[in-house]
Amino acid sequence: MLEVRDLHVYYGKIHALKGISFQVTEGEIVTLLGNNGAGKTTTLKTLSGLLAPREGDVLLDGGSLVGAPPHGVVQKGITHVPEGRRIFNRLSVVENLAMGAYTRTDREIPQDMDGVFTIFPRLKERRTQVAGTLSGGEQQMLAIGRALMAKPRLLLLDEPSMGLAPVLVEQIFETVLTINRRGVTVLLVEQNASMALSIARRGYVLETGRIALEGPAAELAENPEVRRAYLGEA
Predict the structure, then answer these.
(1) Which of 40, 51, 105, 219 could form a disulfide with 215 if both were Cys (CB 3.0 to 4.6 A apart)?
(2) What percent of the chain has pLDDT over 90?
């Protein structure tokens, strides 16, 4: 489905991604792990067209995405839930969800909005509420719901548990599993390595712009280096 080949990305003279390569197969949940500054968010921004690589390629079903604008990437079936949610604070819940469908012209938008409300009943209760007045957990639900309104094949999630209470973290990860079971492939960036590895099929560990480790999620969870660096074990 998605193939990243020898990707090099720069911020000015700073070499942020140094030739990373990885794959995401249709139907998987794949996680990218790494400390702050490892290149995880840069990777997602490049996949979604917000950053342009200097070298390398990003392929979706064999076709290159390099050079496609962000809205073009959305039209090809990839949506991005950014770190920090980035909802439209002054718009209502319904208006935010409608913005997620801005590339669509079909007649199924109301039906899909009902589908989002099925996944997130709390949002249905607050459908007319101004988004900026929602709780942090509700805003994260809204950011994910907005992305789902584009009917993605691949969902990019950047730190969905950031700033949330533990009970809400569990709820968000259960929701990610539900979305995946409904046929959406997921590429997950997450600081909570334990939770990420518990739901992912495979994982990659980024260190200073390079892939240091990769493998099945269960194996990474048992890897001594991963346990020490990301799971808080001595």
Answers:
(1) 219
(2) 75
